[in-house]
Specification:
Chain lengths: 157, 163
C-alpha cells in the first residue's frame, strides 16, 4: 500500500513538472512570436520608406528632361520644383495615396542654400520615423547649370 | 540492486544530454533569430544608392573655379590632372575644398563615413589627397566614375560610403 502511494506521488510530481515545462514552453513561444511580429513590422516599414523614396526621386513633376524623351539621372529641375510645391499642396489627397504620412523636402547644398517643402503630412502621433536622404543634381534651365542638392524623404507611422 | 543503480544513472545521464542539447538549440535560436539586426537590407540599399547618387550629383555640380565660365567638378578634376589653374589659384586645392564642403554638409551630417579618391592611370595614383571622414576599412559601398584627360589619361573617381 505504501509503495503504491509512493508511486502515485512520483507520477503526480512528474505530471506536475511536465505541465510546468509545457507552460514555460508556451510562454517562451508567445514571447518569441510577439518579438517576431514586431521585427516584421519594422522591416515592412523600412521597405515602405525605400519604396516611397524611390517614387519621390522619380516624380515626373520634378525630374529633369533634356530633349524630348531623354532624362538626366537623379536630377531635379528647379523651375519644375517651384511649381510642384504648390501643385502638391493643391492635390493633397492624390499625393496622400502615394506617400501617406511623410515629409518631402528639397535642399540646395552647394553653391546656394535654398529649401523647398514639397509635401508635409505628419500623423497625430508618431510611432516610428525613417529619414532617407537622396543626393540629387538641381538643374537651373535658365542658366543651364547644375548645383548639388538633397531630396529628404521622412516617412512616419 | 547493483543493476538497478546502474540503470538509474544511465537514465539520468541521458536526461542531462537531452537538456544540454535543448539548451544549446535555444541559445542558437536566441542568437541568430531574436538578436538579428533589423533593417540590414535597407542599410545596404541606402549605402549603395548614396555612393552612386552622391558621386553622380557631385560630378555635374558647377563650381566657382573660373568667373567667366561654368566649370563643373568633373571639369575641375581634369584641370587638376592637367595642371590647369582656377583664375590663378591651384585647381587641385580648390577641388579638395569644394568636395570637402559638399561631403561634410551631406554624408557627414547623415552620419556616414566616406573616402573620396581621384586616381590617375592604371595604378590609380592619387592626384589629390583623398577626402576622408573616418574612412571605410570594412563593409562599404563604392561609387565609380571615369574620365579622360586631353592626353587620353584615364582618371578613376571613387567614393566609398559606409556606416
Amino acid at each position: 500500500m505504501k509503495r503504491a502511494q509512493v508511486k502515485m506521488g512520483e507520477t503526480i510530481a512528474i505530471l506536475f513538472i511536465f505541465f510546468v515545462l509545457i507552460l514555460f514552453g508556451l510562454i517562451f513561444y508567445f514571447q518569441f512570436q510577439k518579438s517576431s511580429f514586431e521585427r516584421q513590422k519594422v522591416e515592412l516599414f523600412s521597405e515602405q520608406s525605400i519604396s516611397k523614396s524611390l517614387v519621390a526621386s522619380f516624380l515626373p513633376e520634378l525630374i529633369c528632361s533634356r530633349n524630348v524623351a531623354a532624362t538626366v539621372k537623379n536630377c531635379i529641375d528647379l523651375k519644375k520644383l517651384e511649381f510642384a510645391s504648390e501643385e502638391m499642396k493643391d492635390n493633397r489627397e492624390y499625393y496622400f495615396d502615394i506617400f501617406g504620412f511623410a515629409v518631402i523636402t528639397v535642399e540646395e547644398i552647394y553653391p546656394g542654400n535654398g529649401t523647398w517643402v514639397l509635401y508635409n503630412q505628419t500623423p497625430p502621433e508618431i510611432t516610428r520615423e525613417i529619414n532617407t536622404p537622396i543626393p540629387v543634381s538641381l538643374f537651373n534651365p535658365v542658366e543651364n547649370t547644375y548645383s548639388f542638392g538633397a531630396l529628404n524623404v521622412e516617412v512616419y507611422t | 540492486m547493483w543493476k538497478f543503480t546502474r540503470k538509474g544513472q544511465l537514465e539520468v545521464f541521458g536526461l542531462v544530454i537531452v537538456v544540454i542539447l535543448i539548451s544549446l538549440g535555444m541559445l542558437f535560436l536566441l542568437k541568430f533569430v531574436l538578436f538579428k539586426p533589423v533593417g540590414e537590407e535597407r542599410a545596404t540599399f541606402t549605402r549603395g544608392k548614396l555612393a552612386e547618387n552622391t558621386l553622380g550629383a557631385l560630378m555635374n555640380t558647377v563650381t566657382t573655379c573660373r568667373a567667366e565660365s561654368k566649370v563643373t567638378i568633373s571639369d575641375l578634376i581634369q584641370y587638376c590632372a592637367e595642371n590647369q589653374d582656377c583664375d590663378g589659384g591651384d585647381s587641385c586645392v580648390f577641388l579638395k575644398e569644394v568636395v570637402e564642403e559638399i561631403l561634410s554638409k551631406t554624408l557627414q551630417v547623415w552620419n556616414k563615413d566616406y573616402e573620396f579618391r581621384v586616381g590617375s592611370g592604371p595604378d590609380k595614383v592619387d592626384i589629390i589627397t583623398p577626402v576622408v571622414h573616418e574612412g571605410c576599412p570594412l563593409d562599404k559601398k563604392t561609387g565609380f566614375r571615369y574620365l579622360r584627360t586631353r592626353r587620353r589619361e584615364l582618371l578613376t573617381i571613387e567614393l566609398d560610403v559606409c556606416d
